[in-house]
Amino acid sequence: xxxxxxxxxxxxxxxxxxxxxxxxxxxxxxxxxxxxxxxxxxxxxxxxxxxxxxxxxxxxxxxxxxxxxxxxxxxxxxxxxxxxxxxxxxxxxxxxxxxxxxxxxxxxxxxxxxxxxxxxxxxxxxxxxxxxxxxxxxxxxxxxx
Length: 145
What we know:
This protein is an all-alpha fold. The protein has one domain (3-143). It is built from four helices and no strands.
């Protein structure tokens, strides 16, 4: 994959993750600490998490097309790195009650759900782009045959 396209895709992923993380933080926060008041700095937390989540996604970069087996391995590695990074933040943060096992499980589960949703949305985007490209190619071939 071209490096420029790789970084454009990572930028798209960043904004997608920011949105999904904001929704997850809102839902989890409402469920476990609904009376908490947040400051303006707290509004940047989803973007910080999204930026952190971009680092494990770098394992997906390859100059050549990955085989399905390689792709699956890299996706699994990325998920493992994401879970580790987010849980490390949770366990080192004073604001997150990691003494409660249900909080840790919900955080780990939300990472998995966000990972799945982000991949699903990106797959839909890629599928739409591929369909459009195939239609343009078919139209071009119809004109030149």
